[in-house]
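Appendix B. One record, verbatim.
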Amino acid sequence: MTSLGRGVFVPVPTFFKENEDLDLIAFDKHIEYLANSGIAGIVVLGSMGEAVHLSEQERVQVIKQCTESVKKYNSKLKIIAGTSAQSAKVTIEYTKQAAEAGAGFSLILPPSFYRGAIDDEALIQFYTTVADHSSLPVIIYNYPGVCQGVDISIPVLVKLSKHKNIIGVKGTDGNVGKMANLINKTNPQEVTLLAGSVDFFLSELILGAVGLIPGAGNVFPTLCVEIQRLYEAGKLEEAIQLQRKLVEADDALCRWYGIPGTKSFIQAKLGYAQSICRSPLQSISETKANQILKAVEDAFQLEQSFR
């Protein structure tokens, strides 16, 4: 097992006021909601966190607030910060800033702006350079949906997993077969393999993944933790039944209308923050918000029963 360990790490939104300034008060309340749900850690400045919409100064502010809130509500939680950029040099700088602000791990997407130049050799060079100079252990974030289809191959991931400062892979490609192949070809003492969504979490646990980074964990973190607890306790049928109950709720929160949909549910049911994102992301209509409320209600009520 690597220094990251196992478990559920929730990727939190970055909240904004009506004028799109940071709302760190709402952020603090959200960490309080998550802190004692059984999760292993918090992810800031990931895709859920609208990292690409933040200035360099704001990125540091968010990490510092997360560090402060974690110390206040549950100091055992690990903090993973997204430090992705389009060059190795800037990624290294973001990672240094994240470490100074209190993060313990970095989560890094592959570069993709110059898509035609991003082949296996470029990816190996990029991640090796970053890991060589990173002040934090690196988790590779494979998410083709936000990287112009860049999907890091098994041979590249296996090679990079041998680097002493690369300690994890988050797979948000939805490819369970690929995760199985990666599990077969990597050493769990060298790299922690993390599912990237609730809807295929149990499938990947069965294959050998040891954790999860779920957007839907912002609403039902305890239930995400419970899937893993049931599985590891040998209660497979109970884990299957719980997994089935969360599939549509996960879809509604994370994919129907994206981050604005997740934020709209948090505002409606948790009573803090606003569903505001930075332009070009738009708040969703009341009709769409109500669709999400209806689809997620049962899972949300189940979450409350576990608290």
